Amino acid sequence: xxxxxxxxxxxxxxxxxxxxEDSGGLPFVCHYDESRLFTGHHIPWHWHDWIxxxxxxxxxxxxxxxxxxxxxxxxxxxxxxxxxxxxxxxxAPVNYYSYSFDSRFLAGEFGSYIDRxxxxxxxxxxxxxxxxxxxxxxxxxxxxxxxxQLTDVxxxxxxxxxxxxxxxxxxxxxxxxxxxxxxxxxxxxxxxRDLERMKLMLQYIYSHYSDPLGLEQIAGAAGISLRECxxxxxxxxxxxxxxxxxxxxxxxxxxxxxxxxDSISSIAEQCGFVSDSYFGKTFKDIxxxxxxxYRKRHRT
Length: 300
Fold this sequence. Notes:
By secondary structure, this protein is α+β, with helices and mostly antiparallel strands. The chain is 47% helix and 18% strand.
């Protein structure tokens, strides 16, 4: 089943995405996402236990991860490994299919024979946080064709479609195993400590962005020094922590401008801005227009 109503991702207390349970118990969910429905044309940093695959149906998007940024365009697929932090920006309209699923749907329990042989080498690889698949080799074209087949099956839901979904994704992973052989052979050590620290600090920001916050509180959430906090943000998402906080506050303000009748002053206060004038200046710097004008343009 393809779900068409997703607007904003739902984050738990630790910036982990809470995935939809409207799949009838099947540990596999497909959304058709439209960038115009996401506040500020942006999805903030988050992560999830499930694997994610994106197929770009129209337009292109920018994805950010600790390994860097990429731009994925129409007809391309992006693989996002489980527990990998990522964020999206939509500079122009884009529609894409997002397939999220538990690896146990394919491999059985963790540590099983199938898991150890076919899936763990990919899912536990520190070099495979994100994989951008363009249609530029026969194998990659075949991988993309499988995702298109998957979409057709989910749209039509023929008898036994759940088994067909599992078969198609398994064939995709078999090709991906060959596609990533060289990458995995030259495995690089990832900075897992940075990722765990970032999850703690993002969790704190998402939970307390409306409160008076400074570098001390953000660093304290991960139990590290102010200097190490700044370095950790730069290494992971190429942004200073306070700049990230300001941008997140502005995004939450934009969502309130779109969806509530609260006054500009009230929204500024709710989102942690110390004054209306500072809110207006900051918001315009990020969104290119004053809050009142933004509300007029985006009112739903």
